[in-house]
Design a protein that fits this description.
7-stranded mixed β-sheet, 42% helix, 3-stranded antiparallel β-sheet, single chain, alpha/beta, globular, Aspartate Aminotransferase, domain 1, Aspartate Aminotransferase, domain 2
């Protein structure tokens, strides 16, 4: 049976160009870049080149880039590191954060290491700046905001949030408060569709994943602006600026650089292609009487559509679609095991029943018009 994949927000297939770039460092040039002999030093040069290339794509400097084992680890390194550096401080996260941010903050609060508040969003998933401002305290040190939402594709206006944060920083300086106020973003879903230039976005920290960019799993990047004081979580070496000790993954670093380069170079054409598929998909869903799409009016990426079907059990629907050869999920794969409705869906105003009848349709590079038509025809027969 032919399969139709609509879960690109959860995982992407490895791009052949990325595999070709990384393969030599898995087989022949396998050396530890910390060793001193010549071929190991060649591996170190390759690692540094990958770091430089990623920094250039982010509009940053090489010393601000650390390689990680994915976005979840990057989020942990930054958020826990800031909490350790500034004990008993205050954090703010948005109501639609990924579990890899929300879970970290909740866990640290349970340990008594910080306090936090949740910034509300409107029905389109956008943070309300006035509400965010009201939550900022004198000891607030970090605000974490997901850039492109992994379930419904809403794009947060990081520039506006960053501008607001700069105003608060200036006020703090004038009042003699030296507590930093940092803006972190989980940008796992961003680079395929939008710029990741950290200066333009105004962020102090950014987490990225190769796994969402048609690269290998368990490879990621953490950008932290120069001058940011952060305590390490791990000990045992000075690798990755002291933030992640251990033998460095040269093949993964090369893959991260190549996948990010391809994503940034092709994002305009891919957006245009996906916008046509998105139009076809949404027109088709409008003709299903029980279907209600979420985030219809928001600025969003064209790859993601969140939709619920009245009176339909989404878990059963996903299984029925799987039997028809269609692979998709109810929402974030990281929350799938819990069986509970997404907190993000509740945050944008969905009832528990609506959230339990929601599926996520995530398109990607291999999605075709034929795929979309088959999905729509199958949904019409099931709901």
């Amino acid at each position: 049976m032919k399969t139709y994949y609509f879960d690109y927000a959860a995982a992407t297939p490895l791009d052949s160009r990325v595999f070709s770039a990384m393969e030599p460092y898995l087989v022949d040039d396998f050396y530890n870049p910390s060793a001193t002999y010549l071929r190991a030093q060649d591996a170190k040069k390759t690692l540094n080149t990958a770091r430089h290339d990623i920094a250039a794509l982010l509009g940053a400097q090489s010393q601000t880039i650390s390689f990680t084992a994915g976005v979840t680890e990057a989020n942990n390194i930054f958020l826990q590191g800031i909490a350790l550096r500034y004990p008993n401080s205050h954090f703010i996260i948005s109501a639609v954060e990924h579990e890899s941010v929300r879970g970290v903050i909740e866990g640290l609060q349970e340990r008594g290491q910080l306090s936090f508040d949740i910034a509300p969003v409107d029905s389109n998933g956008h943070i309300q700046l006035d509400a965010l401002h009201a939550l900022i305290r004198d000891n607030t040190v970090a605000i974490s905001v997901i850039h492109v939402h992994n379930e419904f594709g809403t794009i947060q206006d990081l520039k506006a949030i960053a501008s607001h944060i700069r105003t608060v920083r200036h006020q703090r300086i004038q009042s003699g408060n030296n507590t930093p106020l940092l803006l972190h973003t989980d940008a796992a879903q961003t680079a395929n569709y939008l710029s990741v230039n950290v200066s333009a976005l105004g962020v102090d920290a950014m987490s990225l994943s190769a796994a969402k960019l048609y690269g290998p799993k368990q490879v990621g990047v953490l950008y932290v602006a120069r001058g940011t004081e952060i305590s390490p979580l791990f000990f045992g070496g000075e690798h990755e600026h002291g933030l992640r000790p251990g033998t460095q993954n040269v093949a993964g670093a090369v893959a991260m650089a190549e996948s990010l380069k391809i994503a940034q170079e092709s994002r305009q054409s891919e957006n245009e292609r996906l916008e046509k598929l998105d139009t076809r998909l949404r027109q088709g869903l409008q003709h299903i009487p029980t279907a209600t799409m979420h985030i219809a009016k928001a600025r969003r990426v064209p790859s993601l559509t969140s939709v619920h079907f009245d009176g339909v059990d989404a878990e059963r629907l996903v299984m029925e679609l799987d039997e028809a050869g269609i692979e998709l999920g109810r929402g974030s794969a990281c929350n799938a095991a819990s069986g509970e409705p997404s907190q993000s869906l509740s945050a944008i105003g969905l009832s528990k029943a609506e959230a339990q009848s929601t599926i996520r349709i995530a398109m990607g590079r291999q999605t075709t018009n034929e795929d979309v038509n088959y999905l729509l025809d199958t949904l019409k027969g099931l709901v």
